[in-house]
């Protein structure tokens, strides 16, 4: 009698354990059918909606934006990819800054600056910081021959503890009270840095705003939603792959309980140390007799419809970034060659626009460096250049040497955005210029991303170097040079 009661007790415990397992699975399934599948993520509290004035962010919201933008860059694959695309197409392979001045000292000073500051790496960091943080603060330090540059952390640029009387300071930047675009000082770690020592590059904001805004700002919410959508899809796949193995025993409940107790699915060995056959991985085993049956409901989730939500999020991110979808996802399988060529048009224009923007920033850097070289006596204030001018007497163009202030401008070459068949394009331009007469050389140069005037000047220089001078020409040239020297004396 006691053995029978003991068997009933064991059987009851087993049934209770099995019922609890089924209850947990049914709760998961019922939660899905009740549209409660999407639950708050553990890191959801880290993301905050930015409030207040949309045009101007206060200090707290600005810090929040910077933290979230950095979070996206370091932890979101799509966020990282978007930022890296701008690095590659703006300052990637093929990027160079070359002085227009023909004075050797100008080129030497610029090359020293480029090497001392390891600009092959910093050029990309400038682009990365601007896209991610919305701005880059570059501080120039005096060195023996050139500048040394360092970056300032935008989160440490704040208003000082004690604001000087009459000073207008906004977000750590002191400006002229009458002109917000005239900067006087930058307050970094409560220290005033003169504006002459800092180059501030800001993006995605108006000229009357002193601080920049992250390129990721309108994308943050949707990048997080897409990450959560991916996680939810993984949870869905796990639930859909849930398998229950029902072991039916012909006999009384006591016999079923004894078998269930004898072959537990959680142990690998018997009590005596011998191996015990266990259920396959991720499979639950329920032992019952023929009088008890369990039914597992299959969740009707309409997963085929959910996939469109992910695509909608990607398209929203693409629209906010100005890039085609296949660039953001690195997957062009959704379109053929013709459609991809059309889709890349807005992306090409986007990169070209940013090339123009950052080109101005690097030109300003070049001018700073050459001005220091002039101030230190390393670069002459004036240089002798050769220009072709019309002789008013003979009416013939002649090369004339003139003295001008040293040129502070530079020529910037950016990476190729689109790979095309350059031979076919060049042949087409040649036909349009020479045979059809509908295209000018200047327009053809622009389409090939070349500066027509600069290239013509370089061609003339190389042609002059390659000319072979006869003995009579040499004698005549030397006589003319002697006459000019005597006249100058």
Name the poorly predicted regions: 28-38
Number of helices: 14
Kindly name the structural category.
alpha+beta
Rounded to an integer, what's the Rg over CA atoms?
Answer: 36 Å
The largest beta-sheet arranges its strands as 4-5-6-7
- Give the SSE string: HHHEHHEEEEEEEHEHEHHHEEEHHHH
Global morphology: elongated
* Largest sheet report: 4 strands, antiparallel
On the 0 to 100 scale, the average pLDDT is: 78
Distance N to C terminus: 136 Å
Give the total of domains: 2
Strand content: 15-25%
Q: Would you count the extended β strands for me?
A: 13
Q: Helicity level, as a percent range? A: 40-55%
Task: Give structural attributes.
single chain; 489 residues; alpha+beta; 2 domains; four-stranded antiparallel sheet; three-stranded antiparallel sheet; 13 strands
């Amino acid at each position: 009698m006691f053995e029978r009661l003991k068997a009933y007790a064991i059987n009851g415990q087993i049934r209770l354990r099995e019922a609890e397992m089924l209850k947990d699975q049914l709760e998961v399934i019922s939660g899905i059918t009740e549209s409660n599948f999407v639950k708050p993520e553990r890191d959801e509290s880290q993301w905050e909606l930015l409030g207040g004035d949309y045009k101007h962010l206060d200090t707290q919201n600005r810090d929040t934006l910077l933290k979230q933008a950095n979070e996206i860059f370091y932890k979101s694959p799509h966020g990282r990819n978007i930022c890296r695309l701008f690095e590659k197409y703006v300052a990637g392979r093929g990027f160079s800054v070359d002085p227009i001045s023909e004075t050797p000292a100008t080129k030497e000073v610029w090359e020293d600056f480029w090497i001392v500051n390891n600009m092959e790496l910093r050029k990309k960091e400038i682009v990365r910081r601007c896209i991610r943080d919305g701005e880059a603060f570059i501080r120039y330090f005096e060195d023996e021959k050139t500048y040394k540059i360092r970056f300032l952390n935008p989160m440490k640029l704040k208003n000082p503890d004690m604001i000087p009387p009459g000073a207008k300071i906004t977000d750590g930047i002191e400006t002229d009270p009458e002109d917000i675009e005239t900067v006087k000082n930058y307050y970094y770690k409560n220290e005033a840095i003169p504006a002459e020592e800092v180059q501030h590059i800001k993006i995605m904001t108006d000229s009357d705003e002193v601080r920049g805004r992250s390129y990721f700002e309108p994308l943050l919410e949707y990048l997080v939603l897409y990450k959560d959508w991916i996680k939810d899809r993984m949870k869905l796949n796990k639930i859909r792959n849930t398998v229950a193995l029902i072991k039916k025993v012909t006999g009384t409940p006591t016999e079923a309980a004894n078998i269930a107790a004898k072959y537990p699915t959680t142990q690998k060995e018997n009590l005596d140390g011998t191996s015990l056959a266990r259920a396959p991985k991720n499979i639950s085993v329920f032992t019952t007799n023929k009088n008890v049956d369990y039914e597992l409901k299959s969740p009707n989730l309409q997963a085929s419809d959910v996939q469109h939500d992910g695509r909608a999020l990607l398209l929203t991110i693409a629209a906010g970034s100005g890039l085609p979808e296949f660039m953001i996802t690195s997957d062009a399988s959704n379109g053929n060659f013709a459609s991809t060529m059309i889709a890349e048009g807005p992306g090409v224009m986007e990169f070209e626009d940013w090339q123009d923007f950052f080109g101005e920033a690097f030109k300003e850097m070049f001018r700073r460096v050459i001005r220091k070289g002039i101030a230190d006596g390393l670069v002459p204030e004036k240089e002798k250049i050769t220009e072709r001018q019309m002789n008013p007497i003979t009416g013939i163009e002649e090369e004339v040497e003139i003295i001008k202030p040293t040129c502070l401008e530079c020529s910037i070459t950016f990476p190729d955005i689109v790979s095309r068949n350059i031979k076919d394009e060049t042949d087409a331009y040649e036909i349009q210029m020479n045979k059809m007469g509908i295209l000018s050389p200047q327009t053809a140069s622009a389409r090939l991303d070349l500066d027509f005037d600069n290239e013509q000047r370089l061609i003339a220089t190389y042609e002059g170097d390659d000319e072979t001078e006869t003995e009579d020409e040499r004698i005549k040239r030397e006589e003319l040079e002697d006459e000019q020297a005597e006249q100058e004396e």
